[in-house]
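Quick one, probably user error.
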């Protein structure tokens, strides 16, 4: 991922990935653009499958391969994925709003993915200018791209627009501030190939930049950036290590990197527009769809080798806005669970553990990850220590925001729209 600027603290980490065979066959790894970075974090892969992360010192733009190999060999063994034959057609949906500078990089990376049959649907969601449309028209003359306009603000509404327009058997969703790995769609397809009952596949979302202390703080707080072990989740076989299952936060992945089987998603009537960035609730649409997939009897697969690199917010103001959105979205989602008898009974049995988890996240102090970052403002630790509490307190605002969004007629895709989508798809395949 291109750097968003110069490193701003001594603990900054240069980010990259390496194949195990490269460590075995070379004496040194040569890195680019290392000014200001003393250490590197490398994602180690073996034949494309994820082994894990190592952190190594940088010496004159180089890393000693022998030292890195010793660290890499301590990582858990990788799990090879089986690619289906033939590969299914995939529709990639990128939702964006007034961020053409981010979309340019993200869209270019998706178009460069190594996959034989895919389309890209860019959904311009309630933008205030024509900058997104101008960018797609003027800089990306690619027949695989379709630009759609969704005037109703909200990420769930935008994703529903992309879902209804998709022609692929698989619909993959990502954001406009990411870089897709070259094998992303092949690994997504491998996850679906495990079983016809797989209705959702999510991938790894590692930090693509750790240039600032705020980015490192966020990286340490979220769990989805470290989902390194392949997992299969289904309601009939609840995992013993997740007592809150299926009401999990982070274990199933995140909205920047997941895919749905199109027909299964249509049966669920898509995303609930009571949630999502751009609405009163500010988030939660990804947690909601993951849980609904499992509650409907579908299987959700976590496929770490399907990689999307993400650029985290790099300043405190943006981080606080994001934390507030996460908290409100979570509170809204919990309210939805409370107003459905089935999920209320299930969630109530798990609520003490859920409350304990929320409080532990809020109480976690950033010094555990940042250390005494030399050269940083003295109030950095104090400022970031309030972020967790802001997120927790924002949960309390979720119920009211949820009801306001419901009052505005938020909900699932209307059945008439699904019927039209089925008709268009039948016509296009005749």
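Nope, works fine. Designed sequence:
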């Amino acid at each position: 991922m291109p750097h968003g600027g110069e490193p701003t603290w001594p603990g900054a980490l240069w980010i990259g990935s390496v194949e195990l065979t490269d460590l075995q066959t070379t004496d040194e790894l040569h890195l680019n653009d290392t000014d200001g970075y003393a250490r590197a974090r490398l994602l180690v892969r073996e034949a494309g499958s994820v082994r894990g992360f190592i952190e190594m010192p940088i010496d004159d733009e180089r890393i000693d391969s022998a030292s890195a190999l010793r660290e890499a060999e301590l990582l858990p063994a990788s799990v090879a994925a089986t690619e289906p034959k033939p590969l299914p057609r995939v529709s990639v949906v990128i939702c964006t709003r007034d961020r053409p500078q981010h979309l340019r990089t993200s869209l270019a990376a998706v178009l460069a993915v190594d996959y034989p049959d895919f389309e890209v649907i860019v959904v311009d969601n309630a933008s205030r200018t024509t900058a997104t449309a101008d960018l797609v028209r003027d800089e990306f003359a690619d027949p695989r791209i379709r630009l759609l306009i969704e005037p109703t603000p909200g990420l769930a509404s935008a994703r529903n627009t992309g879902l209804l327009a998709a022609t692929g058997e698989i619909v993959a969703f990502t954001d406009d501030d990411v870089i897709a790995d070259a094998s992303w769609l092949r690994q997504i397809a491998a996850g679906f190939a495990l079983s016809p009952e797989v209705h959702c596949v999510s991938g790894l979302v590692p930090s693509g930049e750790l240039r600032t202390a705020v980015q490192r703080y966020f990286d340490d707080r979220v769990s989805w950036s470290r989902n390194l072990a392949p997992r299969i989740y289904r309601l009939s076989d609840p995992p013993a290590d997740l007592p809150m299952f299926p009401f999990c936060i982070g274990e199933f992945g995140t909205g920047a990197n997941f895919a749905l089987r199109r027909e299964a998603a249509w049966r669920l009537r898509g995303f609930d527009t009571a949630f999502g960035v751009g609405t009163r609730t500010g988030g939660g649409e990804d947690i909601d769809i993951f849980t609904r997939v499992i509650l409907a009897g579908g299987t959700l697969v976590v496929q770490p080798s399907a990689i999307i690199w993400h650029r985290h917010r790099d300043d405190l103001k943006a981080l606080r806005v994001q934390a507030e959105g996460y908290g409100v979205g979570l509170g809204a989602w919990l309210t939805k669970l409370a107003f459905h008898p089935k999920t209320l009974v299930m969630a109530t049995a798990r609520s003490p553990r859920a409350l304990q988890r929320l409080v532990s996240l809020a109480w976690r102090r950033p010094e555990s990850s940042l250390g005494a970052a030399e050269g940083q403002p003295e109030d950095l630790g104090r400022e970031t220590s309030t972020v967790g509490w802001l997120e927790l307190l924002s949960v309390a605002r979720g119920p009211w925001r949820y009801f306001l969004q419901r009052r505005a007629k938020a909900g699932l895709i209307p059945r008439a729209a699904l019927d039209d989508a089925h008709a268009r798809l039948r016509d296009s395949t005749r």
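The chain has two domains: 13-72, 81-371+378-430.
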